[in-house]
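Hey, quick one: can you model this chain's 3D structure?
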Amino acid sequence: MTAEPDGALLVVGDVVTDVVARHRGPLAVGTDTAASIRRLPGGAGANVACWAAYGGCGDVRLLGRVGGDASVWHERELAAHGVRPLLVVDAAAPTGTVICLVDTADSAERTFLTDSGASLRIGPGDWSDTLLDGVGRLHLSGYLLFSEPSRALVSVALAAARARGVPVSLDPASAGFLTELGVDRFLGLVEGVDVLLPSRDEACLLTGLPDAADAAAKLSRHVPLVIVKQGAEGALVARSGAVSARVAAVTASPRDSTGAGDAFTGTFLATLLGGAEPGEAAAAGCRAGATAVERVGGRPPRTAGRRPADG
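Sure thing. Here's the predicted structure for all 311 residues.
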């Protein structure tokens, strides 16, 4: 059943093409490794938007940047999942591509090879304050913090949202990129964000603390609401320097963990917009994460009644 949302969800983030290669056991260096390979639509921002629509948010919009090589396909795929695509077509760069190496013998753990392409060329020129018309929440993909143009866009979008009283959430996106960016710089860039949704590894990296609960508590002294995603260990909800809820995971049989965190984030935001408390929204996020790991790729099932996309 679709919740009555308090305004639309606007997601700003990456739209990429995923090439998912599922293999079993270690890669055979210097020779062939048998794998099942699929080309799928992806990107953390796009996946979050699709899961938010699947989770019951009736008006989800996505601002992203793609190349002309795959713009029509990505627009069609987003629309098929109930998302309104607001895609800028980059004339100088191709759509970003991520090769996802998924080891089916190791709890579906994955390794990414990332060519961000057009996605990190999004900048302030792609923003208009009118994008916030009718919006109840703005969500920013953490990948936006890893290039100069998209960092500038984050600053502009945050200022516009604050001026309108629109709450803002952010998912840090990648522990590897966070290490390159630097913790202090990250915390400075996200000042003004209302909800932070790091993974356990990201939370520990951002605080220098080995325990996820301690890390969540510390981060919640910087950001009003912190939700730490812990995969098979569930999630933590922290406010005002203390963990306020521990949410259990849902049992699943993993096939591909790609997009599980995005599934949690999108569903959490949709549930929060529908009026739920953070703990309830986190529980919905855990259920979505369990659904996600049992599917190949980062997107939810298409909603019944929407026209399937080709491709």
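One thing worth noting: The first helix runs from residue 44 to 54.
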